[in-house]
Design a protein that fits this description.
The complex is a heterotrimer of chains A (286), B (256) and C (40). Chain A is mainly alpha-helical and 286 residues long. Chain A is built from nine helices and three strands; from the N terminus they run αβαααααββααα. Chain B has eleven helices and one strand; from the N terminus they run H-H-H-E-H-H-H-H-H-H-H-H. The N and C termini of chain B lie far apart (48 Å). The chains are: A mainly alpha (286), B mainly alpha (256), C mainly alpha (40).
Chain lengths: 286, 256, 40
């Protein structure tokens, strides 16, 4: 149905202060409801707000008195504290620095989080679960979101309570004043492939500074394959899921979702398989 | 005695001055209760009537309102702190020290400011979680969620810029860690992918713009101070206005 | 290596616990509101 073009002449002549617009605006569900469902904001809501403000003010005053703000030595670039920690709300990102290069941990991943959050309402077409708590009607959305949140919070917990000298891992019962031995032994996936498959190290092609070996090409296959398989499985075997999203939404959603899953995956590759980088180029390493 | 009080009230509330300020009687009947909400610009952020379900604490946990409250608290304590603080690397540290030792209630105000900041970061996250779990970002409220994400980011940046101001070891090195990351930005950072290829050096990349120099020094302190006290609060206020206006227009998504 | 395994387990268990917390609260609230509705 084509929208009728609205000019000033077609607006109702007399309609309060809105210039006739109020008559054209669709009534919201709340406005359609009868007066029996409504209560006056004064006193019902205003008092509630006042009480919660008073309670929180009391809480803040209490905290301020029992736990004063810290003030350390005067800033000096001569002495570097060990470890240097960012504010607690950024410690999750700082913890990611263990597993990713700074351009990923500090810039690309947080940007992806923000982009993902911004896009969220546009890539979730599920009309159910609007205005009430529900897990059963939107399992995937709730699971996915709480997984992301859980990852964010656990990394903060680790950064705050489990990282000590040299950003090494310290359990609460460890001696926090003794340095931990530096554990090396991390290798790139490329090198592992070269050694286990006995691949040649002479490059296939050289693109400027980039010498592409067979092993290097294979790591590309693994890296892109992760996304390809991730995109492919729902596309091939969960058509209902794909159809409910449509092409654009599906691709955006799957890219963000797979990137989110990729973070713990890379962490585990490093922790359990001692892999430093999955993909190495002269310009960036992942 | 009561008669006297009544007389005094009468004399005050019947004056031209009083009536020019308050255009409603005492809110002890429904008509005046509605008028209070209708004629007061601050209370007018609310509608006159609200659905019963929207009052459920178990639904909202008051998180959005509390986040706003923390912002107001930060603004008030922040103005107080600004009287005693000069963003000069030679002075800043001692100014903060004086707050705790010389100035009446200086320590209390600094502590309140700090705790409100922590609380605001946390309540913003919790508010976002609540809005997600109740599906309150679904049409027609998608754009307000986007505005909310912007507010979340501004909150974090504001908190981070404030972290530098005490100019102690904690501040300097926390910001140094953060600015190291800026250096690694792809394309526009001198240590980021394709940064050097595009001519980025320590003197012209995004970190240089952020710090106003190659190290966290006087220019960085001034930049962070201005952003913390003026630039970002203005951005915040602007987006908050949009955020609240949208809630007011779209109504509340709460249980029926 | 043992330490790394410990970190991996800590990370996994921690993530699952926090996820469980969010899911638990959601399901609790879902049921609480449903019950309230039935009462009416």
């Amino acid at each position: 149905m084509a929208e009728k073009e609205t000019t000033l002449g077609t607006l109702p002549k007399r309609d309060g202060n809105s210039g006739g617009l109020a008559a054209l605006i669709k009534k919201t569900a709340a406005e359609k409801m009868g007066p029996e469902d409504h209560v006056l904001v004064w006193p019902n809501l205003v008092y509630l707000e006042l009480i919660s403000m008073l309670v929180i003010t009391a809480g803040l005053l209490f905290l301020s008195i029992i736990s004063p703000a810290p003030l350390e030595e005067l800033a000096s670039s001569d002495t570097t504290p060990n470890p240097t920690k960012a504010p607690w709300y950024f410690l999750g990102l700082q913890e990611l620095l263990v597993y990713f290069d700074p351009w990923l941990a500090g810039v690309v991943l947080p940007s992806l989080i923000i982009v993902g959050l911004v896009l969220l309402p546009y890539i979730d077409p599920n009309p159910r679960g609007k205005g009430y708590y529900t897990f059963s009607e939107r399992k995937f959305a709730v699971l996915g979101f709480s997984f992301g949140l859980a990852l964010w919070y656990i990394l903060i917990v680790i950064g705050v309570w489990f990282r000590g000298l040299d950003w090494s891992w310290y359990w609460p019962w460890d001696n926090w004043h003794a340095h931990k031995p530096i554990t090396g032994g991390l290798v790139d996936l490329e090198v592992i492939l070269e050694k286990t498959l006995g691949l040649t190290q002479t490059p296939l092609v050289t693109l400027g500074r980039y010498a592409v070996t067979v092993a290097n090409l294979l790591t590309w296959v693994f890296f892109l394959g992760y996304y390809a398989v991730g995109f492919g499985i729902p596309f091939l075997f969960m058509r209902k899921f794909y159809n409910s999203l449509g092409f654009v939404r599906y691709n955006l959603m799957m890219f963000l979702f797979l990137s989110m899953l990729g973070v713990p995956l890379k962490i585990f590759l490093r922790l359990l398989a001692s892999i430093k980088y999955v993909l190495v180029t002269p310009w960036f390493k992942i | 005695m009561n008669k006297l009080l009544d007389q005094i009230r009468e004399n005050v509330t019947q004056t031209q001055v009083w009536k020019s300020i308050f255009r409603h009687g005492f809110p002890n009947n429904d008509a005046n209760r509605a008028l209070v909400m209708f004629s007061n610009v601050i209370l007018h952020l609310h509608p006159v009537r609200v659905r019963r379900g929207a009052l459920k604490i178990k639904f909202t946990w008051c998180l959005g309102g509390l986040t706003f409250f923390f912002f107001v608290m930060l603004a008030i304590t922040g103005v107080f702190l600004m009287f005693y603080y000069v963003p000069d690397t030679r002075r800043a540290y001692n100014d903060i020290k004086d707050l705790g030792t010389v100035i009446y209630f200086g320590g209390l105000f600094r502590n309140l400011h700090r705790w409100s900041a922590h609380a605001m970061v946390f309540s913003v996250w919790m508010h976002m979680t609540r809005v997600f779990l109740t599906g309150s970002y679904k049409p027609p409220r998608e754009f307000n969620w986007v505005v909310g994400v912007i507010l979340l980011v501004v909150t974090l940046v504001m908190s981070w810029t404030g972290y530098l101001l005490p100019w102690d070891q904690l501040a300097l090195w926390a910001v140094t860690v953060g600015s190291k990351m800026a250096e690694a930005t792809p394309l526009v950072g001198n240590a980021g992918p394709f940064g050097p290829e595009l001519g980025m050096t320590v003197n012209n990349d995004v970190r240089f713009v952020l710090l106003g120099g190659t190290v966290v020094g006087q220019s960085a302190l001034l930049r962070f101070y201005v952003l913390h006290c003026l630039g970002l609060p203005l951005v915040m206020a602007l987006f908050m206005a949009v955020h609240f206006w949208r809630i007011r227009k779209d109504g509340f998504s709460g249980p029926l | 290596m043992n330490d790394r395994l410990g970190i991996g387990i800590f990370l996994t268990v921690g993530t699952l616990l926090i996820m469980g917390l969010f899911l638990g609260v959601t399901i609790w609230l879902e049921n609480a509101f449903k019950k309230e509705k039935q009462k009416k």
